[in-house]
């Protein structure tokens, strides 16, 4: 099944909700970066959260960046997403290995202490930037805390990535549920009861639940109305031309020293790990452009 995001409201617009299946997106990220199981789970959760948060933005050119800087062995992560269900990301140390904790991949241990930075570029003079301290490093709780403290929107975030024995991605997805300021106490109580009794995201996905069915569980008895769906995918907009601009920006001196080495160079995109090769002749052309 192709990845997609569902947007919905409930309790007569007192609640807005998002849910996503991201199995193919997370597997694509794993394949491109060669991530270990715990790194796949960490990056997969951040990609899933990021692609849903990206879909909350209004304009086609809006961009969201989620950046985790942390003390744990994973070294940090960055994800960017747009408003059309496209996301990309990478981890600093994709090969990190940790023993399981309580039978599960120890994402919190991989991240350790640190900060979550959320940057929204909405075409204004300055991008919006919010920073919160990591609460558990498990990512769902960290995003929940971010929404409550930086955006003052009480939210519940559930994220999950389940791995196969061969370390490929079995299933991935999540949900974000947010309550409006005018929510009635009875609706809030019902929502809290639902969240306490639902299965984990990975259990729901592994049982074949679609994003709609996940939201029906989370918002049981609260009149869910799906407003729209959009496809989700791992997508990187890098190109040889974009990388050329990056090479030009490092300056004439650096380019000249590469030329003098007399060898072809290879530059990899951080986000998707695509390699771009440049011959000495191409570097000479870039040197001319850097004047």
Q: How does this model look, in words?
A:
- With 291 residues, this protein is α+β, with helices and mostly antiparallel strands.
- It has helices at residues 23-33, 37-54, 107-111, 140-150, 185-197, 201-206, 211-218, 240-249, 252-261, 280-289, and strands spanning 4-10, 15-21, 63-70, 77-82, 86-91, 114-121, 128-133, 155-163, 169-179, 225-231, 233-234, 265-268, 275-278.
- The protein has ten helices and 13 strands.
- The protein has a six-stranded mixed β-sheet with strand order 7-6-3-4-5-11, covered by helices on one side. The protein has a five-stranded antiparallel β-sheet with strand order 8-9-2-1-10, sandwiched between helices.
- It is globular.
Key features of this structure:
single chain, 291 residues, alpha+beta, 6-stranded mixed sheet, 5-stranded antiparallel sheet, 13 strands, cytoplasm, Heat_shock_Hsp33_N, redox-active center, disulfide bond
